[in-house]
């Protein structure tokens, strides 16, 4: 309890400093973010003289709350939150519980505006009004696709007009398309991406084919949904190039689903050029769950985007609507400045963390591939802080169910937490001499700052043990 109390007290001091920054900047606005000039938002971004960088011992301490004895190789699904940020979140929660009226009237909107300002600077948006904070990428997808559904329902889009998406889009996005687009009469064009993938050009070529298919159907392509980093299988997508192609081919709007992006790859929304861009802050940016940002480029349609939860702020702009959706815990949205302070403890800040994780995951991925006689699922430059590595074919992974059985077995027997991807083989090469052509299963490893080499060695040895013992996925089904 002593360590937790120390962290909480330290977080209280940090919060006092952050409150001072917020109050110093916005006290004249009475806590009303509607009146804050866009030029003032830069004041929220923390700029401190760095005296020393975080040590490896301090990193271990920040993540000491992780369950011991687990090789945690799945940061990509749920992220991770340092102890100092958990303590800062607790201060915000206590602030609300101690005096809710004062919290909502004098602190909430100023705090959320400060968090939005931090994100605005990190992603190079033009205006803080272009940045809204929402629960997660799923909520952001609902906001964008709800708007598309209304356009069909109101006759602005015609039956047969289409939405384009990648075949490996997140399942919740596919369901949102079903709920808002196809139900309203729109059609869906699915672009099949190759995997394993060997080059950016392969992805660009398949995307062009998908757009050509859509144009051949006769309707207009109203929206393209492009992942910046696909989840399963994991690949960095050349979003800037694909957005440019969309503009050339007359696609009306582009939504980049970048759930994994911030803290994982460099983001410049003006350079990317999409109309909408979303990224979770709790996956690779160290925020507590659940918080994401949705960037909406200023355009005539911006005023007609609305949060699915309608509150008394309806009609005041998406950013303001999203900052008030009733009584709930907003603390994860309020600690963004403190998270940036944590990230800036690392040499190179956010770009330094990104490079550290990318280099490490590629190194560990190549080590595993060598040990199993397989290869990475994409070139190193197309790996973010995650990598796909082919599993030995002798494991006999032949379905999504097999992938789940193997994942559960690794967790329960070897204390290894790692996602498994099943990849059907369409055209096996007769006489192939390596496992690459026969790999039907891939592990998706993540690397975050808390990971150590022993985590990956445990995974390597677990798979090697299964191969040595002649274990197959079919056998695991019968356990």
UniProtKB/TrEMBL annotation:
Domain (Aminotransferase class V): residue spans on this chain: 114-301
UniProt-recorded Gene Ontology molecular function terms: lyase activity
Keywords (A to Z) from UniProt: Lyase, Pyridoxal phosphate
The protein, known as: Lyase
């Amino acid at each position: 309890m002593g360590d937790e109390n120390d962290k909480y007290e330290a977080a209280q001091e940090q919060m006092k400093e952050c409150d001072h920054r917020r109050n110093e900047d916005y006290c004249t606005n009475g806590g009303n973010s509607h009146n804050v000039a866009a030029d003032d938002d830069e004041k929220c971004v923390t700029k401190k003289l760095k005296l020393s960088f975080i040590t490896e011992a301090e990193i271990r301490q920040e993540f000491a709350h992780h369950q011991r004895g687990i090789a945690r190789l799945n940061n990509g699904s749920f992220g991770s939150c340092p102890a100092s940020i958990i303590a800062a979140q607790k201060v915000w929660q206590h602030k609300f519980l101690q005096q809710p009226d004062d919290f909502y009237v004098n602190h909430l909107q100023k705090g959320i505006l400060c968090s939005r300002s931090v994100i605005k600077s990190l992603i190079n948006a033009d205006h803080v009004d272009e940045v809204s904070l929402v629960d997660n990428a799923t909520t952001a997808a609902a906001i964008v696709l709800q708007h598309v559904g209304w356009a069909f329902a109101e006759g602005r889009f015609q039956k047969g007009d289409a939405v384009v998406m990648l075949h490996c889009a997140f399942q919740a996005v596919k369901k949102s398309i079903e709920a808002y687009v196809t139900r309203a009469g729109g059609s869906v064009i699915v672009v099949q991406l190759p995997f394993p993938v060997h080059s950016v050009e392969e992805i660009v070529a398949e995307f062009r084919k998908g757009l050509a298919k859509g144009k051949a159907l006769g309707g207009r392509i109203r929206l393209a949904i492009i992942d910046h980093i696909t989840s399963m299988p994991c690949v960095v997508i050349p979003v800037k190039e694909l957005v440019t192609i969309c503009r050339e081919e007359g696609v009306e709007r582009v939504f980049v689903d970048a759930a994994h992006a911030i803290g994982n790859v460099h983001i410049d929304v003006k350079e990317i050029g999409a109309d909408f861009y979303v990224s979770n802050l709790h996956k690779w940016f160290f925020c507590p769950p659940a918080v994401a940002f949705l960037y909406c480029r200023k355009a005539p349609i911006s005023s007609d985007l609305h949060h699915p939860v309608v509150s008394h702020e309806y009609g005041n702009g998406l950013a303001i609507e999203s900052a008030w959706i009733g009584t709930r815990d907003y603390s994860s949205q309020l600690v963004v400045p403190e998270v940036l302070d944590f990230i800036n403890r690392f040499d190179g800040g956010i770009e330094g963390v990104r490079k550290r994780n990318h280099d490490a995951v590629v190194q560990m991925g190549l080590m595993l591939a060598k040990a199993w006689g397989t290869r990475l699922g994409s070139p190193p430059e197309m790996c973010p802080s995650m990598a796909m590595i082919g599993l030995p074919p002798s494991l006999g992974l032949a379905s999504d169910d097999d992938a789940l059985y193997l994942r559960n077995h690794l967790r329960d027997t070897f204390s290894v937490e790692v996602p498994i991807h099943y990849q059907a083989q369409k055209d096996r090469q007769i006489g192939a001499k390596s496992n690459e052509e026969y790999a039907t299963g891939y592990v998706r490893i993540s690397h975050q700052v808390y990971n150590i080499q022993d985590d990956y060695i445990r995974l390597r040895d677990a798979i090697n043990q299964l191969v040595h013992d002649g274990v197959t996925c079919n056998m695991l089904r019968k356990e």
